Amino acid sequence: DQQVKQNSPSLSVQEGRISILNCDYTNSMFDYFLWYKKYPAEGPTFLISISSIKDKNEDGRFTVFLNKSAKHLSLHIVPSQPGDSAVYFCAASAYSGTASKLTFGTGTRLQVTL
Amino acid sequence: NAGVTQTPKFQVLKTGQSMTLQCAQDMNHEYMSWYRQDPGMGLRLIHYSVGAGITDQGEVPNGYNVSRSTTEDFPLRLLSAAPSQTSVYFCASSNPREKLFFGSGTQLSVL
Q1: What distance in Å separates the CA atoms of residue A113 and residue B56, rounded to the nearest whole number?
Q2: Min Cα separation A113/chain B (Å)
Q3: What is the spatial distance between Cα B44 and Cα B64, in angstroms, rounded to a whole number?
Q4: pLDDT tens column, A3-50
Q5: What pLDDT does A97 receive?
Q6: pLDDT of residue B101
Q7: Does A43 contact B50 at a Cβ distance shorter than 8 Å?
Q8: Cβ of A43 under 8 Å from any chain B Cβ?
Q9: Would the pLDDT of A98 be above 60?
Q10: In which element (H, E) is residue B45 found?
Q11: Alpha-carbon torsion B55, B61, B67, B70, what sign?
Q12: Nearest by CB to A89, which of B42, B101, B103?
């Protein structure tokens, strides 16, 4: 039972264009969403997050949009750069009072071409 | 500032062998966890701890043991390695409701 889904295993975008990575979730208890970026042979690193009380959060070239009614979030990267080529994981958390367990999606490999 | 340190980076085991993956963090984080990453499966939670002396199971705990005797350390033990445990293992830490910081991973092969 995949509670967080990234249905596109890979995405190729030209440098300078917009990259849009999508994520769907099924658990209505999720109230905090994050995107992580992972390069080969490294651990995932935090990119951007959004709380369920917001529908948009921006940080430089990265913007995350949350549509609670559709249980869908997306990450926009504008403009895309070759250094953005990596695997992107969507993650979600439901406040449990004692822990911040993250449920991850399967990842989308982004390739930014010159 | 070392962050989250995992050792070893690579390990090859034979079926039935035991070993411990080490994880240490120097950020005084209460929360620590272990994930495994497999192709097409994303990152799946194995075990987690909300503080010294407190551990709990995640999504895929079978075949793994953990303990948390100090705030800094959270080792993962494989009691009898199986080929299905071939994976990349990541340790992570955070304060509650804050972003997870990950180590650089341990690539484990079980033959």
Answers
A1: 43
A2: 23
A3: 13
A4: 999 999 999 999 999 999 999 999 999 989 999 999 999 999 999 999
A5: 52
A6: 93
A7: no
A8: yes
A9: no
A10: strand B42-51
A11: negative
A12: B42
